[in-house]
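Researcher: Going back to the complex we discussed earlier. I've cleaned up the inputs and rechecked each line, so this should be the final set. Can you rerun the prediction on the complete assembly and write out the structure?
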Amino acid sequence: MQDDSQLVEEEQRFRSLFDNNPDSVLFQNEQSTILDANPASLELLNRRKEEILGRPLSDFLPPDKAVLFQQKLEEAFTGHKVQFEVEVHFLGTPAPKVLDIIKVPLWVDGHVAGVHMVGRDITAITASRSLVLEQAKKLNTIFESITDAFFLLDKEWKFTAVNSEVERLLNISRQELLGRSIREVFVSEITGQFYRQYRQAMLTGEAVHFEAFFEPRQMWLEVKAFPSEEGLSVYFSDVTDKVKAHEELYRQNKDLQQFAYVVSHNFRAPLTNMLGLVELLTSMDKQQPQYDELLQHLRRSTEQLDIVMRDMNTILTIRDQRDVAQPEQVPLAEVVEQVLENLQEMLQQCGAEVKLAIPAELRVRGNRAYLYSIFFNLVSNAIKYRSAERPLLVEISATKDMSASEAVIIVRDNGIGFDLKRAGTDVFKLYKRFHSQPAGRGLGLYLVKNHVDAMRGRIEVQSEVNAGTRFTLYLS
Amino acid sequence: MHIVLIDDDSTSIFLMRLLLQREEFADTITAFQSPEEALSFLQNVEAEKIPQVILLDLNMPVMSGWDLLDALTLKGNTQLNHCRIYILTSSLAQADRIRAEENPLVTRLIHKPLDKLELAVIKAETKGDFESYN
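Model: Rerun complete. Updated structure for the full complex:
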């Protein structure tokens, strides 16, 4: 009696669990026949209990899913608990469901007597999960499709999203950024403009827009940062080329201004002489002894004006050709030898010695005419400003490191030199001169500098009064 | 009257000399094409040879007119106190005019070419000096 009532109680407890279970529960035998079904499962299959009891589950399944359910059932009958997720459209039901299914074997006297199938409807969860995934994907597509680099910072300055343009521009992978604070990733920038601007945006809640130089990548970046509840959205792009072009335009404009100033001055010098001379000539009798001398001076001033005119033409032509001239690999030794050959007579006349140390195979990237002009001007200057106290010695040497890929060319003389401190930044400027004798125009070194610039090289000068001058050229 | 000309350009010197002679401006004309030589002359000049007027060019190699003025100021040449220095330049630059006005050694900046009228003004200015001086 006691045993019986205990049994009845257990049976009732089980029944209650079975009937009230929000998950669907079916009991099947080895032939897949449904022996029992709880109300949740009836609802799932959209059937009444008598419609399904005694029939195989496959009667309610689409054919492709029947195979899967059969497999899993057989697996459970081997004595293992089986779990799987499946999307299934039961026959006679309005919509497919996503189920998380567990098949649990029921052991009786050492063998599996049947299998309980517990199915949890996860359709809604799956749908919202895939919605989230889809939205994340959409967002990601948007992030990736904008050409700007883009990242999101949360209120703790941590990166929460980064697109691949950020990775490309900053040369850093998103794994190195996500979840880390911008202050920790870019420590060196903490005092810089970027952080200051972001901070301002966060504090004031107002968007910021600025251009700044990003030191670690040697880049000018244009940045827009928008604060929000979440933190800060930052868009940026590389504007280095634009900034460089601006700087170049500004520099060229300044150059031209300076050029116009110098030119006007140098036109006016001979012109004022002409004005004065003409004024005197008109009031002078032809018979007077100074008349012829005046005419000579007038001729000389006129010629000077013509020379300035020609200089302008030379300079402007070079400027015009700057961007047109195609660089080539010029054999340096050949060019220098050509220059020396053309200056041979002058070199011999002053008893000069020239020492050359240029590897025969050394080539520099540039323009042959420019290189000729550079060495012609430098050697001519060495001759012109030689010392009367010692025979002229000109040394021209060149080296090119395999690693440096830059040729270093030195032109050195033992002439009268000049006071570099006094000349200051004027050495390569137009119509600047550093010797009163012999007369020069102040054009040579200006042209040299122009040619070197056009070939994207550099030139430096060292000089000591009465000891000599040394020019160092760096060409690629 | 003693006048000193400092200009690296020989035509300029020739022109000024001719004009000065025609206008009978000075008894003595001393011309320097090298500003360094002019400087050393002015620094060592004997009292009776101190010029009353200097015409100074600006744009010269090695030592510009400004450099020369700086060198004179540095030495504190008191013997030049009663000498009028005129800058005579072909430069029309405003910067040069301002700089001339600011330099206490400089009486005035004159644009080249020098002419009769300008010489007459200079003469009047120096004459005033003599009268107040004597």
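Model: Worth noting: Chain A has a mean pLDDT of 89.
Researcher: Good, that matches what I expected from the previous run.
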